[in-house]
Design goal:
5-stranded mixed β-sheet; single chain; 12 helices; globular; binds zinc ion; alpha/beta
Length: 395
Amino acid sequence: MRRSNTGLILRHLRDHGGRSRATLATETGLAKSTMTTLIADLVAWGLVREGQPERGGAPGRPGMAVSLDGRGVCGIGVEVNVDYLCLVAVDLAGTVIRESTTPIDAAGVPAAQTIARIGELLVDALESLKSDGVRALGVTVAAPGFTDKATGVVRLAPNLGWREVAVADDVARLLGEASPPVHAENDAKLGAVAEQAQLAGSGVDDLLYITGDVGVGGGIITGGRLLLGADGFAGEIGHMPLDPAMLQCACGRRGCWETMVGLAPFLRLAADEGDAVRRPDQPLEDRLRELRRRADEGDDRTLRALAQIGEGLGTGVSILADVLNPRRIVLGGYFAWFPAELVAPVADLLVARRLNADAAVPSVVGSRLGLTSAARGGAHYALEAVFRDPTLAAT
Ligand SMILES: [Zn+2]
């Protein structure tokens, strides 16, 4: 009871902002007398703070507003990508308080070596947070692959060359006895969580996030919650059989959507071999910046490549929109570098295919979160456990 009621208050403060105990009691339906005790618990656990007198509240004596306390606790997300690790810490109020990116060659070294590096980054981050008086209440490792929701084992991450890697347990072991709980989740799912966190309080509870990288992944938020599926493999949209050329995919199948619209086919369409934008040893951000520049200058080859990607993207998105009925579709990863070229064809196709003129069409936007998106989502995901059960912060 205490767990669910304190959770209700904490989520209400997150979604609606600071307010007085009296307003909270009215809006949550909890009794005023219990409210005092519950708020006292939340303050003692470092999750809620007393603030300014409430403005615009109920008439009469203004109550002292309580709000989320971002100072004392945080969640951490670490994204493993083919060529970088990204670590982000987010406090309870949703503010990013740590952010770093470290280049690695995750596909070229054994998984254990990459995990050791993750462990080092986390040890440093946890120490520096602790010296600032911030407790990390959870860690989520974001991996580009099929991740078992129950065990945190990455069953298959084709582009890292990972198979059956127990990343959550391995990282927890490296952090030792004082380790906060460590989970692992698919990177695109966590990208969707990061996008939803940006939209808190906006009323958008149904969101489809599609990220284009070496692979193409999806994250589905439905009714405000991340869709996991029976084993946690929901959202593997990159492997829908849509490519008429039936090219070989890294997953072992042929004709997957990502062989049409992933980063590799885009680069092949946009430039000849030997062109700097196709050199994997160059930072991806630099190569995308160069392609962005070419598109801005009206370079015919780049624009034709983007037109073809836009068409392929529209084909898959229109299927997903029919199946999932999202309110918003967010294009992330490399797609987000080309909103002017990729959003319009996808949005136009959704309008053209709607069943009647009155039918609502989801809005299509490019992500603004950049390369840190999955790590940021991981940090929010770690905090989500606290929003569901604030007693986790009691110890
Ligand atoms: Zn595939």
